[in-house]
Amino acid sequence: xxxxxxxxxxGEQPDYRDFCIPSNVGxxxxxxxxxMVTPILESRLDTPRWVLYKCHDVVAWGICCKNELLxxxxxxxxxxxxxxxxxxIIYSDVDDGxxxxxxxxxxxxxxxxxxxxAAYWCCQExxxxxxxxHSINNDVTSYIYAEQNxxxxxxNTDVFQCLSLGNGNREKAVAAALSFTEMSLLIxxxxxxxxxxxxxxxxxxxSSQVATKTxxxxxxxxxxxxxxxxxxxxxxxxxxxTENSRINMFNDENQNDMEQKELENLxxxxxxxxxxxxxxxxxxxxxxxxxxxxxxxCGFFLLMIAYLWHNSKSRVSLFGxxxxxxxxxxxxxxxxxxxxxxxTNTFEVPAKGKDSVVIVWKSDIPRIKTNVDNYEWxxxxxxxxxxxxxxxxxxxxxxxxxATVELILGEQKEIVTIKQAAKEK
Length: 425
Hints:
The chain is α+β, with helices and mostly antiparallel strands and 425 residues long. 30% of the residues lie in helices and 28% in strands. It has helices at 27-41, 106-116, 170-178, 238-313, 321-335, and strands at residues 2-9, 17-21, 49-55, 58-66, 84-92, 100-102, 129-130, 143-145, 161-164, 182-187, 204-206, 213-216, 219-220, 227-228, 340-342, 346-349, 354-363, 369-372, 378-383, 387-392, 401-409, 412-420. The protein has a ten-stranded mixed sheet with strand order 7-2-1-5-4-3-10-11-9-12, sandwiched between helices. A four-stranded antiparallel sheet has the order 15-17-20-19, with no helix packed on it. Mean pLDDT is 85; it is low at 316-327 and 329-335.
């Protein structure tokens, strides 16, 4: 089981935002929680609201309240106005057979506030940080365990309804809710509208101030993204299901025609390929004849160069002094080795990783050989004649990592070193 925390509130700098983000769940869970608590934070919040959300092996348990309930300081914005927020603990990889959450314990969330909110209170607008909470404080003395009880048959499981349970035993209701695969429960709400938010409504709510009743809610269809009143067995709205059926029927009717047309196209491509092969054979025959002529011409010039070189030793030139100088120039050009020069031999990469490490070299040949050892944390993105681009992944260990890249041209070899800093403690 993994543990993180999620806090949505306004700090000293204005505007509500994801103040603390959990690292053990995806953005979709965070988005659902944000949508669920938004209408609650718009109320007066004279009394705190408790929020439970479960989706398969992920459980969120938190409180919506005024920040001053959790801290005597760091609870007003830059203008001195009191602020509110949602503060929660997020569990992932949950085992239903042995799972519990802290009971309705304000002291636990005060410790969470001190660690995840107060410590970052002066951060700028829009800033957020990943959760530093990865365990439950041992000072917690009361837990609620997942179990089936009389509320197991009372809780609503229809996502298109919100059931108000009225007044009841909060601990037993939460325990029963934890035993379901998917469940959401709002406790101590003052109005049922707090639980029927259009973007992410609750399936159940429990309060002494709201009578027992059922309210219909809408959900967003994952295919057309419209608000609908029901889903089909495939998890989409009826209109999308009908449209999919029509498209499938149309595809079946046209499948044979498409296969016939595809066969005709393949036959046409085959004829075109045969024609291109014949034309290519003719061009190759012509090129072979030209190659033979070039070999003869090159052989003649090589004989002339050898003759001029031999006679230059005895100061005899067939074509005079100018031709001897030309021969010397040709020989020196042939003997000149290719060279290349690496611009930077050492790169330092931060622990968080880097998307692009660019190794650049100067070279007077089309391409050199590069060898990158098989490091799991280094990936090659692209390579051309004078550079290679690599990416470095995040370093999750407390030691520095070093990688080497070899650039080879004949007997010349250059080593480029990549150093990645250790994980910050």
